[in-house]
Write a structure and sequence with these properties.
The protein has 134 residues and is α+β, with helices and mostly antiparallel strands. It is built from four helices and six strands. Helix content is 28%, strand content 43%. A six-stranded mixed β-sheet has the order 2-1-6-5-4-3, sandwiched between helices.
């Protein structure tokens, strides 16, 4: 596993823990994220403050969340593409939901500079400009 994969996985751990102060240094000051089609707030969110702010806003909507079943699909050059399951229990409602998702992360100098969250692996690979492996 590369250092880039380690950084992305550490970002997941800090996101799950709502430790946004410790998550901030993992993101480049000029970072940018986008959400999947149909997401209520697809972005783009540009700049470290906007990225962390979006994660904090998402965290306000749930009591519990966890990322499971992480499968690294691409670890090449400056890109990490993975699939994962995101399990959430809503704040107030207590309703539990889970989503199968994928993310494409581009890293520079040991920081995430770009991330695209998508519903399918194919969409994440497309967002990264990478071909689907046969």
């Amino acid at each position: 596993m590369s250092q880039n994969v380690d950084i992305v996985l550490e970002g997941f751990r800090r996101f799950e823990a709502r430790d946004f102060d410790r998550a901030r240094p993992l993101w480049h000051p000029d970072s940018r994220i986008t959400g999947p089609e149909g997401w209520p707030e697809p972005g783009p969110f540009e700049g470290q403050d906007a990225v962390i702010g979006q994660f904090q806003r998402l965290a306000a909507d749930w009591d519990e969340n966890r990322v499971t079943d992480v499968d690294v699909i691409v670890d090449r050059d400056d890109w990490v593409v993975l699939s994962f399951r995101w399990e959430v229990r809503g704040a107030g409602s207590g309703v539990a939901t889970e989503s199968q998702m994928a993310g494409a992360y581009r890293l520079e100098g040991g920081r995430m500079v770009e991330a695209h969250f998508r519903w399918t692996l194919e969409e994440a690979l497309e967002a990264a400009g990478l071909p689907m492996e046969q």
